[in-house]
Design goal:
The strands form 9 sheets. The chain has a 5-stranded parallel sheet, with helices on one face. A 5-stranded parallel sheet has the order 9-18-10-11-14. It is built from 18 helices and 26 strands. A hairpin with a 2-residue loop joins strand 16 (about 305-310) and strand 17. It has 3 domains: about 1-150 and about 330-435, FAD/NAD(P)-binding domain; about 150-325, FAD/NAD(P)-binding domain (3-Layer(bba) Sandwich); about 440-495 and about 505-525, no CATH class. Helices cover about 30% and strands about 20% of the residues. With about 525 residues, the protein is an alpha/beta fold. Residues about 415-425 have low confidence and may be disordered.
Length: about 525
């Protein structure tokens, strides 16, 4: 019996993976509906993520699909939040997940049973309408997310207590009308910060966005009009990024992102070239800077009564309103601190999933990772790995080995507005997912495919690394995986080719042009 905490993206795929392995999941969801982050509500609910209605996914539908459940071909390539929620509902209905979800049920505590060293069992206390109930579970999957506790480090902004205007965290934002005629400052240049600045600039008198570090800005529309992640997140590109020396890999990435526009000319360049930042995905910011709708400034030095002073900018800038897009904290109030210790906004988890010190590996945390790519397939792979460990079909290494790896990763953290980011090598979605896939025997063998199915091998290596690749072989293989891979560009182009026939068209090289190169690479690098 497995307790699943939360019925968002992580909780749904965790429940499904439990069923695939013959386990008995019970999913506890404190609200009255599934969807987690992707379920929009007009009111801000306590302990729930808050979404603004204009949010669109930053990763394309083919890269964001669960590995055995492609999106409908008529869905747009990048999904408005309402359609992504529809997809999650269809997923839950197709695999019969809803009967395993207890809505309106809050998890109050999760504690080890007295006989935990031998049984690995947990006592889970839940509350419904003020009445608490205790349950016993053999394992727990924590899927409660990390976008419900806003981080608002006001102590980092001198003079904010003197500011007479309005300020709030981006979690409170819903509609741009609140900025009508105002002079607005957006603090932070993550995805939410840029989205809000763009929306505000359509109605505000003036919008300024400030960043102390800069960013890499990507457009959803990438080379030749293809989705950015279907071009960048291929096995070939991942191999190149992670095989080159660090500085050379950075220069290659920097050159690629600057092909669309020179970030330095727009005030967006990264301050320290040795640091790897999570890229921001937005289609409008460069043109809004060009047309004067948005001004980019360095970090805040000090707030005044009705103005702000930026670093390296002596003059004061008048402002009426500040939006702090400074990210989120995360915690697990239902867990004892000794189970999952959160320190400096970092949880010490093996492969971002398992506490290293438990006598029995029967508790896992899903979704605490920032991959450079779609997160849904990554979480699904975490869930597939976790459920097989629960069953004893996969084993974790000794505690000393796990702790050594976790400690080494801590050394590579960099911080920005109190948020912790990891270097690109550790969160490259292809590398990380491949690693977990190899643990359970579902990582695709390009070399093996080359001799059995050359067309599929070429598409797998040179084409986008879509989640269906992890259903080609091994436990949980799906008969429709090959067809899903070979038709992924058809589904991508179907909603855009509405005036002309939607014949297949992709940036993948032809069979004759690259067969020899693939064979050579496979032999040399062990693919």
């Amino acid at each position: 019996r497995v307790a699943v905490v939360g019925a968002g993206v992580s909780g749904l795929t965790a429940t499904k993976c439990c069923l695939d392995e013959g386990l008995e999941p019970t999913c506890f969801e404190q609200s009255q509906d599934l969807g987690g982050l992707w379920r929009y509500t007009e009111n801000i609910e306590a302990r729930r993520p808050s979404l603004y209605p204009s949010v669109i996914s930053n990763t394309s539908k083919e890269m964001s699909a669960f590995s055995d459940f492609p999106y409908p071909e008529d869905f747009p390539v990048f999904l408005p939040n309402a359609q992504l929620l529809d997809y999650l509902r269809h997923y839950a209905e197709h695999f019969g997940l809803q009967k395993h979800i207890k809505f309106g049920t809050t998890v109050m505590s999760i504690r080890k049973r007295p006989d935990f060293p031998t049984t690995g069992q947990w006592e889970v206390v839940t509350e419904v309408d003020g009445k608490q109930t205790s349950h016993v579970f053999d394992a727990v999957m924590v899927c409660s997310g990390n976008f419900s506790e806003p981080s608002l480090p006001l102590h980092c902004f001198p003079g904010i207590e003197k500011f007479r205007g309005q300020y709030f965290h981006s979690r409170q934002y819903k509609h741009p009308e609140v900025f009508q005629g105002k002079r607005v400052l957006v603090v932070g240049m993550g995805n939410s910060g840029v989205d809000i600045a763009v929306e505000a600039s359509r109605v505000a008198a003036k919008v300024t966005i400030c960043t102390s570090q800069g960013t890499w800005l990507l457009s959803r529309v990438f080379d030749h009009g293809y989705p950015w992640d279907m071009v960048l997140n291929t096995r070939l590109m991942s191999w190149i990024r992670n095989s080159l020396p660090g500085p050379l890999s950075w220069e290659l990435t920097n050159y690629k992102v600057n092909q669309r526009f020179n970030h330095k000319n727009y005030g967006l360049q990264l301050e320290k070239s040795c640091l790897i930042r999570e890229p921001v995905v937005n289609d409008d910011l460069p043109s809004y800077i060009l047309t004067g709708r948005i001004t980019v400034k360095p970090g805040v030095k000090e707030f005044k009564d009705s103005s702000v002073i930026f670093h390296n900018c002596p003059e004061e800038e008048p402002i009426d309103m500040v939006v702090f897009c400074t990210g989120y904290n995360f915690s697990f109030p239902f867990l004892e601190e000794a189970i999952v210790k959160v320190e400096n906004k970092h949880a010490s988890l093996y492969k971002y999933v398992f506490p290293t010190h438990l006598q029995k590996p029967t508790l896992a945390v899903l979704g605490l990772i920032r991959p450079l790519g779609a997160i849904m397939p990554v979480i699904e792979m975490q869930a597939r790995w976790v459920t097989r460990i629960f069953k004893g079909l996969c084993l974790l290494p000794p505690q000393s080995v796990m702790e050594k790896e976790v400690n080494e990763k801590k050394k590579n953290q960099v911080k920005w507005f109190g948020l912790t980011y990891d270097e690109v090598l550790k969160t490259d979605s292809v590398v990380y997912t491949d690693e977990l896939a190899s643990f359970i025997g579902v990582k695709p063998s390009v070399l093996g495919l080359l001799f059995r199915d050359p067309r599929l091998a070429l598409t797998t290596f040179f084409g986008p690394c879509t989640p269906y690749q992890y259903r080609l072989q091994g436990p949980g293989c799906w008969a429709g995986a090959r067809e899903a891979i070979l038709t992924q560009w058809d589904r991508t182009l179907k909603p855009t080719k509405t005036r002309v026939p939607s014949g297949s068209s992709s940036p993948c090289p032809s069979l004759i042009a690259v067969a020899f190169l693939l064979l050579l690479a496979a032999l040399i690098f062990g693919f």
